[in-house]
Amino acid sequence: MSRQLKLCGWGYEGDGLTGAEEAGLLETYAGRFDVDAFERTKMPAAEQIELSAPRIAPPDTLASICTTSPVDRLLHCYGQSFPDYVKTFAGDFSTAPDVVAYAKSETDVANVLDWAADAGAAVIPYGGGTSVVGGVEAVIGGSFKAAISLDLSGLDQILEIDRTSLSARMQGGIKGPALEAGLRQHGLTMRHFPQSFELATLGGMIATRSGGHFATVYTHIDDLVANVRCLTPSGVVESRRLPGSGAGPSPDRLFIGSEGALGIITEAWMRLRERPSFRAATTVLFNDLETAVDAVRLVSQSGLFPANLRLLDANEAGLSGFGDGISHLVVLAFESADHPVDAWMARALEICASCGGRYDADAAKDPDSHKSGDTGAWRTAFIKMPHFRAPLVSAGIIHDTFETAITWDRFEDMHTGITTKMHQALKDVTGKAGYVSTRFTHVYPDGPAPYYTFVGLGRQDALLEQWSELKMRASDAVIEHGGTITHHHAVGRDHMPWYERQIPMAFQNTLKAAKQVLDPAGVMNPGVLVAAR
Amino acid sequence: MSRQLKLCGWGYEGDGLTGAEEAGLLETYAGRFDVDAFERTKMPAAEQIELSAPRIAPPDTLASICTTSPVDRLLHCYGQSFPDYVKTFAGDFSTAPDVVAYAKSETDVANVLDWAADAGAAVIPYGGGTSVVGGVEAVIGGSFKAAISLDLSGLDQILEIDRTSLSARMQGGIKGPALEAGLRQHGLTMRHFPQSFELATLGGMIATRSGGHFATVYTHIDDLVANVRCLTPSGVVESRRLPGSGAGPSPDRLFIGSEGALGIITEAWMRLRERPSFRAATTVLFNDLETAVDAVRLVSQSGLFPANLRLLDANEAGLSGFGDGISHLVVLAFESADHPVDAWMARALEICASCGGRYDADAAKDPDSHKSGDTGAWRTAFIKMPHFRAPLVSAGIIHDTFETAITWDRFEDMHTGITTKMHQALKDVTGKAGYVSTRFTHVYPDGPAPYYTFVGLGRQDALLEQWSELKMRASDAVIEHGGTITHHHAVGRDHMPWYERQIPMAFQNTLKAAKQVLDPAGVMNPGVLVAAR
Questions:
Q1: Which of A237, A246, A447 lies closest to B257 in CB terms?
Q2: A475 DSSP 8-state letter
Q3: Do A447 and B164 touch, CB atoms closer than 8 A?
């Protein structure tokens, strides 16, 4: 039986933090902000929420897959961003789609796109609804008569498995757990675990260039895509399934990162691997952030290609409730389906030691070490994090993250700049000192992908404005220091002003021209990547 | 002093095969085709070649960088393909550009593009002139008044080195040897050695998605590009230099593989590495091609990431004059600037042994093994190969190569199909059995990039027609068996009919739309990637 998604909160009803965990979380933050307790806002019940009447009705031919029921419209209104939660708590669903269409096949998708073009309606592709950048909210500009949320989770099949080439053809709406469960039967895994894994769909991961499990080499889903089949309003575009090609600019790379603005990724051949049987993981502690960064840089440039190489600064570790609160942590892991990884781990630890890193040499040899100690604690915290948002918002705590990538030579300057600016911004906006922490989610030989968390004590009646100001300051800082506005969270609607500052104008114009070819009526996810008409 | 390039033949006057080497080469082929000796055509002297009068004259402002001298026009007429050589020997330079412009700066490039648009002339970007696919020949369609070859080799500077991020900003016209010599002073290397290394330019490598030194992981130059600066007729497009980004479709990926049809890559930040100090290389012999392929597949899927993993079938090894003529060879090498690679090599050899591979375990431990034995012989042959073309063409021997990529599950079927069809084609076209051999130049976890050589005894008065028929049959076979028309030789003009069969029409239309934005007058390398207007 299908389970009921939460209207506000991560995942399904019944999942999440226990009452005690939630109380503990808020108690920690009460301590941090030196308040006795938080006043909590309550989520309005679905039946209390006012929705405007749907502005269009699906044609009879699509009646069986379309609904205008309030619950479906509410559930498809928002993603999982901080402002999404604030608006949900406020009962503001003014941007709810008029209709939700549940596609079960590519034909359904084609029919909905045709209908949308005829009806002058915008189409908002909806995979797992895990966007944290306004990617699924129907803020579509004034020229559309209505908005249709096109739910793709019915396209959930593994269509073909090629064991020899370690590849599978899968539908775009398949969610992380179903995908991995299907592959596991063949001893295979895609091994792409974004934090949104539980709900995120394959097509959504590709459309947003999601960042996955591997901290080095195969970081973005881009590297795992062997071909895409994309249904655009102008018809199907399907590239050849190839391990590599040099025939002109890559067609796949136009659709990887297209965020629903060009069409719907209905299928893709994905590169897989055998399930790892050899593992080594450990945590290395550093006194100084600078030497920890050096160690991560040197390991990333060593050609050892660890599966995990994530740096957590002392603040980040502390905020997550582990580490000693003073040391900076590097979570280091190797895995293989082919060979023991001791030689790899030994050399990586040598590099860390040469930079002053401290570690438990025995723990590194424990095959279950990725589940124990600080490494295991981090793993557990990482999985639970999405459940923190609802209680924090209800308590009026502004807690959000942003992420970027930058070359090593500019990291220190950017990091100092961002940290200083965000501390100042928190003071300016909330009137009180807040918290800023960082980790590296992925690292490349030429630079890290730093991920920032900021936390401030907000005002319940001004959360959205306060957050907007903080987000603007953060995004300005990222762009001014030479970073990318997003390494793996995507652009959505929230990042558009900074995306337009980052991307060369002539490239934006070519993207607009591509959209004109593939989506001449401009109905696909308007306002994302290309400014709404 | 700058050296004189050969009008016909690889590289510079004075370089190439000795008289004895050339005689030996032809003797070998005489034996193979059972003829006493070859009648040799002679290359006409430059002054004997008739050139039509230039159809335009450069404006005074560009006079200092432009020339209409016959030698310059002749030298910029062709690339290095088999038909290029045949036409050169025939003294047919009817497609020679009217003017050669030697750009020394980005401003020069901009001025030439402006002039071309005003004058109704086509611009043919010319880096090292090493195209084997008609990429630099001014076959431009009837709507242009003239053709300008824009020689970029004056843009030859390393502009900036970032030792921390192992990166450098370099101009697009810098050639392989100068690039490596400049980096070597800093202990760095780009480690991208296409067979055309001696002459190829950085911008040309990026524009054609060249395939390099590494047989796994970082195969295409694509992976080494941190940003590009491209001067288009609509202005400069420069992406941010980033180690990674998830902000929409990658702007760089539009220009990587753009083959001069969108603009000129004037600069790029490239990812480098430290010069390797640890090495292991050896050759593994197999009795059956099938088990050799299995071994290569398993090593490519092992996560060991060898620098070299090249399979040569017995024919290929035999044609190149080494191996035992019966065994199939796998050239296997690891290298690192960070750590001894023994554990890596040992495991890769275990995999090879499990597939029936035979090797000299001691040789694998020799740090100079990449320069000795069959591995070294292959290395030497690889570097010399470009020098074979002129004597072979002069002797009327049709000797050409084509390359593709395909997933493992479809390789055997494709390989049998291509081999059978090419043997038949050689018989049909030349009336005599020929030779077909294969190697893998690069391998991916999901499939190899097979590279085919075909050799037939041609007729001096019909070489071009014979080659065209063989090329057509080869390209048809590649496309019909699901491959890509090119893995790293690019599309150029020669591959256009098959490129149009391979690439989804809607993507071709978006490329056309992109060209309309960036090159509204359509002057950039017309006929390449986008059909000439």
A1: A246
A2: H
A3: no
Out of A232, A245, A253, the one facing B253 most closely (by C-beta) is A253
Which residue type does A12 have? Y
Q: How far apart are CA B249 and CA A510, in angstroms?
A: 11
- Name the residue type at position A387: H
DSSP structural state of residue B6: P
DSSP class of A484: -
Structure tokens that stand for B268 in this block = 């790029």
Q: Name the DSSP letter for residue A157.
A: -
B446–A338: do the CB atoms touch at under 8 Å?
A: no
Q: Is the dihedral of CA A118, A122, A125, A128 positive or negative?
A: negative
- Closest residue of chain A to B443, computed from CA coordinates: A243
Report how far residue A515's alpha carbon sits from residue A139's, in angstroms, rounded to the nearest whole number. 18
Contacts of A445 in chain B (CB under 8 A): 165-166, 243, 271, 273
Residue A325's pLDDT is: 83
Q: Residue A225 corresponds to which amino acid?
A: V
- Please write the tens of the pLDDT for every residue from B101-140: 999 999 999 999 999 999 999 999 999 999 999 999 999 9
Domain boundaries along the sequence of chain A = 38-275+503-533, 395-501
* Shortest CA gap A229–chain B (Å): 10
Contact A363, A331 (CB under 8 A): no
Band (pLDDT 50/70/90 cuts) for residue A406 is very high
Residues of chain B positioned with their CB less than 8 A from the CB of A208: 246
DSSP letter assigned to residue B510: H
**A38-275+503-533 CATH pick, 3.30.465.10, 3.20.20.70, 3.40.630.10, 3.40.50.410:** 3.30.465.10
What percent of chain A shows pLDDT beyond 90?
Answer: 89
What's the alpha-carbon Rg for chain A, to the nearest Å?
A: 23
| A166 Cα distance to chain centroid | 25
Q: Kindly state the tokens that stand for B396.
A: 């009327």
Task: Give residue for tokens 């995908």.
Answer: A179
DSSP string, A193-221: --TTTTT-BHHHHHHTT-B-S-SSSS-BG
Chain A 314-343, CB below 8 Å of chain B: which residues? Answer: 336-339, 343
CB pairs under 8 A between A and B: 286
Q: Taking the domain B158-274, which CATH number applies? A: 3.30.465.10
How do residues A154-212 score in pLDDT, each as one tens digit?
999 999 999 999 999 999 999 999 999 999 999 999 999 999 999 999 999 999 999 98
What CATH number does the domain located at A395-501 have? 3.30.300.330
Q: How confident is the model over B166-193, as pLDDT tens digits?
A: 999 999 999 999 999 999 999 999 999 9
Edge-to-edge, what's the strand order for the sheet holding A225-232? A158-162, A167-171, A264-271, A225-232, A235-238
pLDDT score for A533: 64
| Nearest CA among A286, A267, A280, A211 for reference residue A443 | A211
Give the predicted TM-score (pTM) of the model: 0.97
H helices present in A12-64, as ranges: 19-33
- Interval B74-96 mean pLDDT: 97
